[in-house]
Write a structure and sequence with these properties.
By secondary structure, this protein is an alpha/beta fold. 40% of the residues lie in helices and 14% in strands. The protein is built from 7 helices and 6 strands.
Length: 260
């Protein structure tokens, strides 16, 4: 039996997206199907996300955005939320040496301080009334500080991120800027105040969701207005490099008109 083809070789001649945004869904369902705790599903999902990020860098995708924790995820049990935050903290610190070695900038996108709008009670119920916990924020600060000067690649970690919340924060920044600059806020573009503003590729070319859910759930609503949406029925922990290659090939086969 001939050896399996390297998934990267399948992409020869394909149009490679500059920015791939991923909704890595299905970790809990994967765990439940195997009689495991949800945290074990998330742990496996994180391992897969790291492997797939490496593959993306290898095939020439500059920016990968991973949606790790949505503003709606505060509705989950206190045990799951606390476990997720511990996983994020350790995952970020484990990623740091690799990011430095490969000169990859790691950025946090999402609400850094305080609970999201409408989630005050949920944050308090889970034991985090101030939003993201200090140890996780410290890990975020560390990896951003030590990788902030790199330009080879970018990994965006969307933690405590929601599309409506981002728009609210963007308008807050716009209003503050207008007041400081003494200009009419009506003349400013909200796109200049989004979480990915200033990056080389702020808008995803592809939004890819795992687990068989066919919706974007408000992920990067302004940035992804013209992104190609691609879906797989596989749960995130089962996703392989071949699945990423399939998503890229589907994107490459589409004609993008951007309204023209």
């Amino acid at each position: 039996m001939p050896p399996a083809q390297d998934p990267a070789e399948r992409l020869a001649g394909a149009r490679i997206p500059a920015h791939l945004a991923v909704i890595p869904d299905g970790n809990r369902r994967w765990a439940w199907d195997r009689g495991l705790s949800p945290i074990e599903g998330h742990r496996r999902g994180f391992e897969v996300a790291r492997q797939l990020s490496r593959f993306c860098r290898r095939v020439g995708i500059h920016t990968v955005t991973l949606w790790a924790f949505s503003t709606e995820n505060w509705k989950r049990t206190p045990e799951e939320v606390a476990g997720l935050f511990q996983l994020y903290e350790s995952w970020i610190l484990d990623l740091l040496p690799e990011a430095v070695e490969e000169e990859t900038r790691v950025c946090h996108i999402g609400r850094r301080n305080g609970p999201p709008l409408g989630m005050v009670a949920e944050c308090a119920r889970t034991g985090f009334p101030e939003g993201l916990p200090p140890p996780l924020l410290a890990a975020i600060d560390k990896i951003e500080a030590e990788t902030g000067h790199f330009e080879n690649n970018i990994i965006n970690l969307a933690i405590n991120y929601g599309g409506a919340d981002e728009i609210q924060r963007a308008f807050g920044r716009l209003i503050d800027h207008a007041a400081a600059a003494g200009v009419d806020p009506k003349g400013l573009d909200p796109a200049d105040f989004l979480d990915t503003t200033g990056q080389r590729h702020p808008n995803p070319d592809v939004v890819w969701r795992t687990s068989g859910e066919y919706r974007s759930s408000g992920f990067l609503p302004l940035q992804a207005a013209y992104a190609e949406l691609v879906f797989t029925t596989k749960y995130c922990p089962d996703v392989t490099e071949d699945d990423v290659a399939d998503a890229i090939l589907e994107y490459s086969a589409r004609v993008r008109r951007f309204g023209g």
